[in-house]
Amino acid sequence: MSDCIFCRIAGHDLPADVIFEDEDIVAFRDSNPQAPVHVLFIPRRHISGIGEMESEDQLLMGKLLYTATRQAKALGLGEGYRVVINNGRKGGQHVFHIHLHLLGGRNMGWPPG
Predict the structure, then answer these.
(1) Is the pTM here over 0.85, yes or no?
(2) Which element (helix H / strand E) includes 68?
(3) How far apart are CA 107 and CA 72, in angstroms?
């Protein structure tokens, strides 16, 4: 989708501080970080939100989560981190392309919001 900011980042049409990419996933630092480490993990393929996933997206979503956990370790977040997926406007989703937030580098409070 040419108007999706995350599709444009995945296609290297917009700049981002990319820390990981492969044929399925791109991970980049959030431009408005909410923690010392705040990385977004997106699938290259456009899926608007978790409510729009199809059964064939299961492996991709598993890979997205697995990649985030591997990168958390590489980023030194072994003592703990938070993984968040927002869905829909009322769920706090602002960009309608599935993305996983990896947050760490500080103590996380509860409830989150």
Answers:
(1) yes
(2) helix 58-74
(3) 15
Which residue has 């630092």 as its token pair? Answer: 29
Write out residues in the chain with pLDDT < 70, as ranges. Answer: 1, 113
Q: Per-residue b/e over 27-45, b at no fewer than 16 CB within 10 Å?
A: bbebeeeebebbbbbbbbe
- C-alpha 73/C-alpha 57 separation (Å) is 25
Give the helix/strand (H/E) hosting 103: strand 100-104
- Active-site amino acid positions: 99
Start-to-end C-alpha separation, the chain: 31
Contact by Cβ (8 Å): 40, 95: no
Question: For 73-87, what is each residue's pLDDT tens digit?
Answer: 999 999 999 999 999
One-letter amino acid at 36 equals P
Give residue 100's identity as a one-letter amino acid code: L
**What is the C-alpha separation between 81 and 105, in angstroms, rounded?**
7
